[in-house]
Design brief:
The complex is a heterodimer.
Chain A (H helix, E strand, L loop, with lengths): L4 E3 L2 E4 L5 E6 L6 E8 L3 E9 L2 E5 L6 E5 L5 E5 L8 E8 L8 E2 L3 E5 L1
Parallel strand pairs in A: 2-11
Antiparallel strand pairs in A: 1-3, 3-8, 4-5, 4-9, 5-6, 7-8, 9-10, 9-11
Chain B lengths: L2 E3 L4 E5 L4 E3 L2 E3 L6 E7 L6 E7 L7 E2 L2 E6 L4 E6 L8 E8 L5 E3 L3 E6 L1
Parallel strand pairs in B: 2-12
Antiparallel strand pairs in B: 1-4, 3-9, 5-6, 5-10, 7-8, 8-9, 10-11, 10-12
The chains are: A mainly beta, B mainly beta.
């Protein structure tokens, strides 16, 4: 158990819908990262937050957004969902950034039908 | 852009034997970090080992060790005394000042009893 929690574990929804994925970092970690793992794209970095502020952005679609709250938990919002958004979404956290090891949560498996 | 390449899609090893996974990366940075993560069937991403580029000594963690060749930009993982629980996907990852992890495509390790 890495200490990073993600909810829900599984999510099944329809195209065009909107979902919110939640992540609670390890105690004491200030930095949160979101990654997407899909069969065709592999593991890709989406976005990073550090102590409530957006720090870095990767291949995140405009339909996706994220935020980190004062209690340091983070949410990833996915809207206007498409079939291709089906993937495993990971949250990771680290003490700081950069150079600190990232510890991953168990992931949220999203299936868009 | 940094890239990470794992040239072996799948490796098979007999229980108690040794297997070596290859990873090469491309970067113009001099200061960076390299990681191996394990992803078992549960899909959880588990940190196996970490190497700082400024350290000449190769990292070791129990039965796991790396061969870090900075000039060749090579970072291989050796699993000694392989166990059935080592069966998983293994991902090589790179991190520089941008904080994000860049992952290779993964190598599936099969352990034969």
């Amino acid at each position: 158990d890495s200490g990073v929690t993600q909810t829900p574990k599984h999510l099944i929804t329809a195209t065009g819908q909107r979902v919110t994925l939640r992540c609670s970092p390890r105690s004491g970690d200030l930095s949160v990262y979101w990654y997407q793992q899909s069969l065709d794209q592999g593991l890709q970095f989406l976005i990073q937050y550090y102590n409530g502020e957006e720090r870095a952005k990767g291949n995140i679609l405009e339909r996706f957004s994220a935020q980190q709250f004062p209690d340091l938990h983070s949410e990833l919002n996915l809207s206007s969902l498409e079939l291709g958004d089906s993937a495993l979404y990971f949250c990771a956290s680290s003490v700081g950034a950069p150079r600190w090891t990232q510890y991953f949560g168990p992931g949220t498996r999203l299936l868009v039908l | 852009a940094q890239t990470v390449t794992q040239s072996q899609p799948e490796m098979s090893v007999q229980e108690a034997e040794t297997v070596t996974l290859s990873c090469t990366y491309d970067t113009s940075e001099s200061d960076y970090y390299l990681f191996w993560y394990k992803q078992p069937p549960s899909r959880q991403m588990i940190l196996v080992i970490r190497q700082e580029a400024y350290k000449q000594q190769n990292a070791t963690e129990n039965r796991f060790s790396v061969n870090f060749q900075k000039a060749a930009k090579s970072f291989s993982l050796k699993i000694s005394d392989s166990q059935l629980g080592d069966a998983a996907m293994y991902f090589c990852a790179y991190e520089a000042a941008g904080n994000k992890l860049t992952f290779g495509g993964g190598t599936r390790v099969l352990v034969k009893p």
